Request: fold
Amino acid sequence: MTTTAADTRAPSPAPSNGPDRPRPPRRRTRAADRGFNRAFRYLATSAGTLILIALAAVAGFLLWQSWPALTSSGSEIASKVSFFQGQSSLASYLGPLIFGTLLAAAVALAVATPLAIGIALFTSHYAPRRLASLLGWVIDLLAAIPSVVYGLWGALVLAPTIQPVWQWVSNVLGWIPLFKGPAADPARVLLTVSLVLAVMILPIITAVSREVFLQTPKLHEEAALALGATRWEMIRTAVLPFGRSGVVSAAMLGLGRALGETMAVVMILSPGLTYSFALLLAGKQQTIAANIALKYPEANSLGMSTLMATGLALFVITMVVNMASRWVVGRRKEFSGAN
Amino acid sequence: MSTPDGGTRPAPTDSGPRPSTPTTPTPKKDDPAMAQRIDVKDLNIYYGDFLAVEGVTMTIEPRSVTAFIGPSGCGKSTFLRTLNRMHEVIPGASVHGSVEMEGVDLYGADIDPVAVRRQIGMVFQRPNPFPTMSIEENVLAGVRLLNKKISKSDAADLVEASLASANLWNEVKDRLQKPGAGLSGGQQQRLCIARAIAVKPQVLLMDEPCSALDPISTLAIEDLITELKKDYTIVIVTHNMQQAARVSDRTGFFNIAGTGSPGKLIEMDDTGTMFSTPKEKATEDYISGRFG
Ligand SMILES: Nc1ncnc2c1ncn2[C@@H]1O[C@H](COP(=O)(O)OP(=O)(O)OP(=O)(O)O)[C@@H](O)[C@H]1O
Ligand SMILES: [Mg+2]
Reply:
C-alpha cells in the first residue's frame, strides 16, 4: 500500500535515459494496475470488516437476549425457571456447564490430536501414494457424516459395547480420579462422548496437519537425511517443527467443533451439573450446547434468557481458546520458518 | 528397470528404521591405510525413465580434493548425490552401477543408506539451515542425530570450532540462540558447512558451496577445504574455474550433448593437466570459455 501511495506522487527525478522519453503505454498499465490494486484492497478490507461485524452482531445478540437473566437475582431465576435445579445464582448454574464443556472437548482433543498427527504423517511421509489417497478419502468421509448419525451410533452401539472396556479401565486405573469406577452401564458417560467427539474432529485435524506436513520444504528434509537421519529422525528435525503451528491451528479448529457439538452429546450423555472429573460415571457433567438443545423446548422467557447467557459463555470460551492458541503459535514466530 | 551394462537394482526408496546392528562401510579414521577412496563404475543415474547421467567411471582419491566442472544441467549435482545415496530420496529416482568406498559397495544389499550418509557429509547447492532451530542447534543437529551424549562445554567448543572453520564464528558469536534462518544467504551457507563438518564425516560432498558467498568468505571456505583434505576426502562441484584450479587436486569435466540426452563424464585428470593440456577438445573449449 505504501508503494501505491508513492507511485501516485509526481514522477520523481528522471530516469538516466532522459526526462522527455515518451512513455504513455507504461503509464496506462500502471494506472490500470493501480485500479485493480485499489479494487482488491477494498474487497479484502470489506471482507475482513464483514467478519468483524458478524462477530460483533452475534455477541451483541447474545448479550441482548441474555440481559434479563444477567440482571436478575439467582432466587428470581430459580423461582421462574423450571430447569434451574435449585442453583443459587446464574454463576453456579453456568459453572458446571462450562466445566463439562471444557472437559469433554479437552479429552476429545487429547485423544484426537495424537491420532490425527500419526495418520497425517503416515499419509504424508510413509504410505505408498495409493494407500495414502485411499486413507485420506476415508478420513474425509468421516467429516461428511452428520452429527445426528454419530449420536445415534454412540448411544445405540458404542455406549453398550464399550462398557466392559470402561469397566476394565476403571478397575486398572480407578485410583486416578478421571477413571473412578464403577463404570456406568450403559456407558452414557463423558468418556464415550469424548470418544465420539474425537472421531468427529479427527478429519479436520488430520486434513490440515497433512497439508502442512506435505509443505515441509524438500530442502530441509534433505538436509536432515544428508546428516544421516532415519525417516523418523528426519520427521522429528524437519517436518514436525515446521508443521507445529499448523498442527496447533488444526487442533484449534477441532476444538472449536468439539466445544460446540450438540446432537452427539445430547443423544449419548446422561447429564448432570457437578464439577466432577469422573469420566466413567453417569449423570455428572453436561455441555453448554447440549444443555441449550435439551432445555430450549420447555423454556419460558427468563429460561430462554438463561440459556442465552450460557450461549454467551460458550462464545467467550471459544474466543479465548482461539486467542490463546494464536498466542502459542506466535510466541516463537521467528523460528517458524515462515520466511 | 534394466540397463545395457547389466547392473540392475531396484530403486531403494527408503531409509526406514535403522537395523539394530547397522552395517557400515566402517573405515577407521586413524588408520592411514584406510583413507577413503571411492571407486565408481559404470554408473547410470535415472529420474524415473529419464537417464540423467550415463556411464560414469572414476576414482576419487583419498585425502584429496576432487572438483567437478561442467555446464548447467549436465548432472554434476545428480552424480554427487549418488555418492552418499541422497539421489534415491527423490521419488522414482534410481541408480545402476556400483559405487565402492574402500571396496565396500555403498549400494550393496546389506548397506543402510542412513549409515552411508552419516559418513559422507553433504553441503547443498542452496543453503538449507533448519528454520526452527537456532544457529547453535543447527551446528549441533548432526551430532544430536548420532545420539552422542555430549557435555555442555564440549558442545560449546564444537560449535565454536565448526563455526570458526566455516569462517562464521565472528559474525554470529553474539547471537548463537537466534534462528538460523535469520542469517544472510551467504551466512546460511557457511552455517550449513559448519553443520556438515561438525559431525566429522569421512567424505565431504560440496555442491557449489561458494556460489552465494563473497570473495572473502569464498577464500575462507577454500582455506577450509585445503585444511580438511588432510583428513577427509573432499568432492566439490563448482562453476568457478579459478576455484577448481586453486583448491582441487583432480578435476572431472561433465558435459551434455543436448537437452534430453544424458550427461557424461568427458574427462578426468590431475587439475594441472586438465587446465593446461586437456586431452579432449570439449574440455579445452569449456575451460577456455568457448563453450556455447
Ligand atoms: N528432481 C529431479 N527430477 C527430474 N529431473 C531432474 C531432477 N533434478 C535434476 N533433474 C535433471 O537432471 C539433469 C541434471 O541436473 P543436475 O541438477 O544434476 O545438473 P547440474 O549439473 O548440477 O546443474 P547446475 O550446474 O545448474 O547445478 C537435468 O537435466 C535436470 O533437469
Ligand atoms: Mg547443481
Confidence is low (pLDDT under 50) at residues 1-34 of chain B. Residues B 76-77, 125, 207 surround magnesium ion (ligand 2) (CB under 6 Å).
